[in-house]
Amino acid sequence: MRQSQQMEPTHDRYRAVTNRTIHRYDQWSRIDPELRRAVEVVSQVLPFRVNEYVMNQLIDWDRVPEDPMFQLTFPQRAMLDDREFRQVEALLERKAPRTELRAVVDEIRMGLNPHPAGQMTDNVPELDGRRLPGMQHKYDETVLFFPARGQTCHAYCTYCFRWAQFVGNPKIKFEARETDDLVAYLRAHPEVTDVLVTGGDPMIMKTKALRAYLEPLLSAEIDSLQSIRIGTKSPAYWPYRFLTDDDADDCLRFFEEVVASGKHLAIMGHFSHPVELATEPAREALRRIRNTGAEVRMQAPLIRHVNDSVGAWTELWQDGVRLGLVPYYMFVERDTGAKKYFEVPLFRAHEIFQGAFQNLSGLGRTVRGPSMSAHPGKVRVLGTASVRGEKVFVLDFLQARNPEWVGRPFFARFDRKATWLDDLQPALGEDRFFFELEKAA
Ligand SMILES: *Cc1c(COP(=O)(O)O)cnc(C)c1O
Ligand code: SF4
Fold first, then answer.
1. Where in the sequence is the domain holding 77, given as residue range(s)?
2. For the stretch 350-362, what's the b/e string if a residue is b when 16 or more beta carbons lie within 10 angstroms of its beta carbon?
3. 252-276 tens-digit pLDDT
4. Is 255 a domain residue?
């Protein structure tokens, strides 16, 4: 077996750290009480979950609250508006009954746009007139698959639009029970070349469960299926998944089997900050994954307080390339959750992207962005320009509901404050964007 090299097991077992258990940790008792209080209040609405690896090896507690990994995983006071914050704080202070707290919290949550861009309703595929929950099919080549048991994560990102799935309100959750539907759907849709297994984080599953979901995809011998992608943050949040967890070696063996079946196995690694690539366990996990024949690509959103600098992205992509990873996407933080706290204006997002891009050799310039996953498609900000005296954004589609839209540059009026496609207006005297005039395929 290739995966024989042993790591010193510094974390023999995964332990989630939540607002119930955080009090047991030294790091926590050392930080400012007011900060602790703010985390406690906001986490009623936006729950947090970290683990001992994130606590001990990723967060620099001397730099809290500015530390980027603390910002990434612990809820911050300014994520709620002031009125909401005080409302929840007052309920906690007078030890209000659970039902009362719950009602207030639910209302605040519903105001946070848990499923942006028509995700719940628009992209659910059908087979023989039956809707297939737990799948989404938006772009011809790629079906998203949400295995029911992969809908949580080793730690939660504070900005994440998937949070709706984690807070246990069944009305705003969607999931798949079976691979059978997926196999049948792929047979009926030979245009689909890629299955993207996503969550939450599918690597939260035991290897046994992962096999149960994915082996049927291999044994069905669907020729049109080229690539299986797994979207995961586990190398960043819990590298021991590939090192010392009970079924770590079995997981790597399964990756080898996927590769041996003739499919491309792409680990779509979510990496937000260079510190996530700097630890020895993370590096060893990535070496082991790459030894199976899987490729690891890197993607992440640009998040204020976490990675909103040229330096952070330069280092992230350079270190990634050094480790054999392929930079893939930089996303714009989307229109959900505590967007106001995390958003970066589009013009600034582009400056950061371009600044880092210019620092890379061609091997790192596989990356594309900054990209907005919006209703009509993935829209990239290519830059700004001056056309007939008017300052404009130049944009294009990296993915679109109508494949003919992809790669056609188009213009929007320059706007320093715009943070999302919805904020943009057509430029050069036009009153609609070209994609608003055409049918979505
Ligand atoms: C991003 C995305 C994909 C994958 O797109 P690629 O450009 O092939 O990586 C597929 N489906 C949805 C809904 C997406 O947002
Ligand atoms: S790892 Fe991904 S799905 Fe999980 S909380 Fe972070 S962004 Fe969301």
1. 16-110
2. bbbbbebbeebee
3. 999 999 999 999 999 999 999 999 9
4. no
Asked whether residue 39 is domain-assigned, the answer is yes
Task: Write the pLDDT tens digit of every residue in 340-396.
Answer: 899 999 999 999 999 999 999 999 999 999 999 999 999 999 999 999 999 999 999
Count of structural domains, the chain: 1
Ligand lying closest to the C-alpha of residue 162: 2
Compute the distance from residue 112 Cα to the ligand 1 centre, in Å. Answer: 23
| pTM score, whole prediction | 0.93
> Which residue puts its alpha carbon closest to atom 1 of ligand 2?
233
Q: Is residue 67 part of a domain?
A: yes
| Test site for ligand 1: of 123, 124, 139, most ligand atoms within 8 A of the Cβ | 139
